[in-house]
Design brief:
Ferritin, single chain, about 180 residues, mainly alpha, DUF892_YciF-like, elongated
């Protein structure tokens, strides 16, 4: 039972034959998420230059998870018999550009810059959590259980990364930033 008190409904029909509109929506979202994760593989190394070793380590660890998430998405393309194509994710592009501007507005090597890195990273994490969560639910609705399980694995990694960033901010970086000036 979900939090609203109702049970989610799933189809027993073949999604490839009887749910073409939903499957196309799923495929489009999958292509955008694939683009977004590949974009992050290129973007995250810049953020790993944080001055906090805990933050840099967390970002490096998440970079490796992101590479695994790309592999999972490729597996999903295979499972669902779709071409492995990336479709530009405008939201991710905007979030990463906004993050770069935010980070560049701070002094290098400072805890304040690390705060900016965390802020930018968490905006990205929250977007990914939304994407993986909605795709996993749609996969379940379409009866794509194996696909849903792969998406949920990535969803849990994104949630854990967000929690880790919050802990680093609360227990380390934010306090250090207050001591600068």
């Amino acid at each position: 039972m979900d939090k609203t008190g109702s049970n989610p409904k799933f189809t027993n029909r073949s999604p490839l034959q009887e749910e073409p509109a939903l499957l196309e929506l799923f495929a489009q979202s999958l292509r955008e998420l694939y683009w977004a994760e590949n974009h992050l593989v290129k973007t995250l190394p810049k953020m790993a230059l944080a001055s906090s070793s805990r933050l840099a380590g967390a970002i490096e660890e998440h970079l490796e998870e992101t590479k695994m998430q790309v592999s999972r998405l490729e597996e999903i393309f295979h499972i669902t018999n779709q071409k492995m194509l990336a479709q530009k994710c405008e939201a991710m592009e905007c979030l990463t550009k906004e993050g770069e501007i935010l980070i560049e507005s701070t002094d290098p090597g400072t805890a304040t810059r690390d705060v900016a890195v965390i802020m930018a990273s968490q905006k990205v994490e929250h977007h990914e959590i939304a994407c993986y969560g909605t795709l996993a639910q749609l996969a379940k609705t379409l009866g794509l259980e194996e696909t849903a399980a792969l998406l949920e694995q990535s969803l849990e990694e994104e949630k854990a990364a967000d929690v880790k960033l919050t802990e680093i901010a609360e227990n380390d970086v934010n306090y250090e930033a207050t001591m600068e000036s």
